[in-house]
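My convention is simple: the sequence line spells out the residues, with the fold written below as integer tokens. I include a record here:
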Amino acid sequence: MNEFEKDVQSKTNDVIDSGFGFIFSFVFFSLIFFIGVIMKAVG
């Protein structure tokens, strides 16, 4: 067991963190996509 396994910075579950990252990136790219669709429809 190495020293990093003994002194952990974050005790939260990795699945929850990766889920938040996936949702944030999905919402971000969806927002950019819909802005592009609206611009194409208007212009």
About this structure: The chain has a mean pLDDT of 90. The first helix runs from residue 3 to 6.
